[in-house]
Amino acid sequence: MGCGILLLPVDFATRGYLAMGVAMLVQSSIVLTKTLRDEHEGTLLHKRIEDARVEELLARTERA
């Protein structure tokens, strides 16, 4: 994509505008990926905590 922008027959301002657009597109893709990963890891942690609570409740019930 960078080569395509450099070889376009336009002035430098247009090339800079397109390059900034590409940079922002890459940045937003990275942020989206990190956000989705963090959300997934958060749900896994929440499930583990909930499973531990259920196991503790079952253990208390079996003792009684």
Please provide the ordered H/E string of secondary-structure elements: HH
Q: Uncertain spans, ≥5 residues at pLDDT below 50?
A: none
The assigned structural class equals mainly alpha
Q: Whole-number average pLDDT? A: 92
**Biggest sheet record:** none
Total helical elements: 2
Hey, roughly how much beta strand do the residues contain? Answer: under 5%
Q: Distance N terminus to C terminus? A: 68 Å
Query: How many beta-strand elements?
Result: 0
What share of residues is helical?
over 70%
Overall outline: rod-shaped
Rg from alpha-carbon coordinates: 25 Å
Can you walk through the features of this model?
With 64 residues, this protein is mostly helical. Helices cover 89% and strands 0% of the residues. It is built from 2 helices and no strands. It has helices at 2-6, 12-63. The radius of gyration is 25 Å and the shape is rod-shaped. 0% of the residues are buried. The model has no long low-confidence stretch (mean pLDDT 92).
